[in-house]
TrEMBL record:
Residues 625-660, 661-696 form the EF-hand domain. Residues 36-140, 149-255 form the Calponin-homology (CH) domain. The keyword Transmembrane helix does not apply. GO terms for cellular component: actin cytoskeleton. SUPFAM superfamilies: Calponin-homology domain, CH-domain, EF-hand, Spectrin repeat. Keywords: Acetylation, Actin-binding, Calcium, Coiled coil, Metal-binding, Repeat. This is Actinin alpha 3b. Residues 270-297, 435-469, 543-570 form a coiled coil. CDD domains: CH_ACTN_rpt1, CH_ACTN_rpt2, EFh, SPEC. It comes from the Eukaryota.
Amino acid sequence: HFFNKHTSYMMNEEHQYMTPEDEWDRDLLLDPAWEKQQRKTFTAWCNSHLRKAGTQIENIEDDFRNGLKLMLLLEVISGERLPKPDKGKMRFHKIANVNKALDFICSKGVKLVSIGAEEIVDGNTKMTLGMIWTIILRFAIQDISVEETSAKEGLLLWCQRKTAPYRNVNVQNFHISWKDGLALCALIHRHRPDLIDYSKLKKDDPIGNLNTAFEVAEKYLDIPKMLDAEDIVNTPKPDEKAIMTYVSCFYHAFAGAEQAETAANRICKVLAVNQENEKLMEEYEKLASELLEWIRKTIPWLENRTAEHHMRAMQQKLEDFRDYRRIHKPPRVQEKCQLEINFNTLQTKLRLSNRPAFMPSEGKMVSDIANAWKGLEQVEKGYEEWLLTEIRRLERLDHLAEKFKQKSSLHQSWTSGKEELLSMKDYESASLMEIRALMRKHEAFESDLAAHQDRVEQIAAIAQELNELDYHDVISDGDQCVPLPVKHLVPLRDQMLQEEVARQQANERLRRQFAAQANIIGPWIQTKMEEIGHVSVDIAGSLEEQMNNLKQYEQNIINYKSNIDKLEGDHQLSQESLIFDNKHTNYTMEHIRVGWEQLLTTIARTINEVENQILTRDAKGISQEQLNEFRASFNHFDRKRNGMMDPDDFRACLISMGYDLGEVEFARIMTLVDSNNTGVVTFQAFIDFMTRETAETDTADQVMASFKILASDKSYITVDELRRELPPEQAEYCISRMTRYTELHTTLEWTLASYIIMYLYNQVH
């Protein structure tokens, strides 16, 4: 090409059609090869439209000279009526008609510079080709839009997207990228794979490839042959305008398919959102049912207060309870946390896609699960207290029983032979001196008996306490200890005292060992809870930075789990040693467990809140500055500093923003921000309310319009059409939910009307 800065063909100031390299030089001749390609291409393009009006042109510079076919061409391609043409054959009649055509072009936002009706009437080839190119740009290329690019760039991007999967095709321009014919064949094959066997094409046969594309396009796609294969192959750089003009015909030929593809994509997008939401709903219902069923089955086991008679049996109950706390309950804690996260994520996605809030089945609300869990933990706490009380009782019983046996043994030893002695009549044959000696001996016995009476009362008191504590055994003569000489009891008692000292010292070491760890872990948990709270309300960084910080906290918490496990081991040793008090710490294992579970739940819930905030930000296009403003306002009115506003605080916040609130209006707003009647407003709900009008989502009307495109504007769509236009899973999803179109009385047509739209938007469920 040769160019001149004085000549340009452009739109208005906002949208320029032609860049300097597209300009035509009015003083120098076109490259002969390019002029030949343009004459052929532009002529064929014009005829593809003129034939709709029953006419055509033979010579592009001659047949437009009177302006009549030029005006007709513009009427056909625009669908509008131009002013009535002049019928005369004089030069001024021709100029008037051409000016009417040029004025119409200008009325479409095209600014024509240095091109006049006289030059067209005079048959100036270069100016005529320039005018036709301007028409092609305006009516065939300008409105092409692909992924925020338009006109030439949009057409190029469309070609790149469509041919990307094909071997030996790399579309970078509208000249040499098309010389081997493979790009044209790829375009056809992408939309009509039945027309070309792409696998049989060869890169080293460009003329064969080009002619294949030209012939198939003309025969099956109604695209006339606008180029010669030999001209393209033998020209070092084919004419860009000729190639663009021809390729634009493919774009428009496939426009219906593109429109259907766009409609199908919109439907698929809506269906995908709905399917994902349904999956989350089903998962919630399933997880809620399983968790509630587990709670229902676990509570009776924890409510069972059947005492055991032996310490070993009660210690087994305690071991079973430890397994419950250590093995069976933790996964359920995680499930409960995940259930809340799933619920919050689902509600956020429903709000962002303008769907109504999810209402779980009766008895499966988050609040229902929270109440059931609270009841479980109350029963659990009572069960543990009962276990420890029972173990203390059995320990006391064993101690008393042993004491009873020992005292009874000693008393039995003392009474042995005493009855025979008292029954003896040795005094009958005794002298007075001997009688006096027997009397002194008897008096001594009476004194000794009085002393032993206290021991008997002690034994009786022990027996009474055993009965009161529901001692399971009866001490018979056979169960009583064999009397031991005093010389054996002394060393035995010494041994028992030494063992007790060792036991008490070991218990003290266990107490100190547990306390040392608990006094570190307890404050660590509290500190992490406070730090997480600070991160979640921090407005210094972006949401991604908050997320990274929270993920680091989460990893640190996971890594800290070994310390909790070690403390559980120390606690188990303490319980096995029947240690139930510890003056060295205020933390019990129960405190640590509850704190740890709260920490795990808090970090997971906080991460989920930030994830939902990111979803909201991206869906509604909220800037970081806006988010910071929302957070600052929320924090200011979050007077309890717990990440939530109560209704009075929320009302004060709205009033500070200029809302004129009556009771009815505030009640309406509260139903939006607290649909589950929790009595608080979370930051996520606050953001949703403040940005409720800004999300870009597909409306029911848009979805309906997309279905009508797939149905060729019918009020129903067939099963075959659904299966042809949509992926299999989503096609079957629609078929299973759309109601039959009753007017046709057939199972193959399905109404596009209310049901599918109502279903997709959860107006019925």
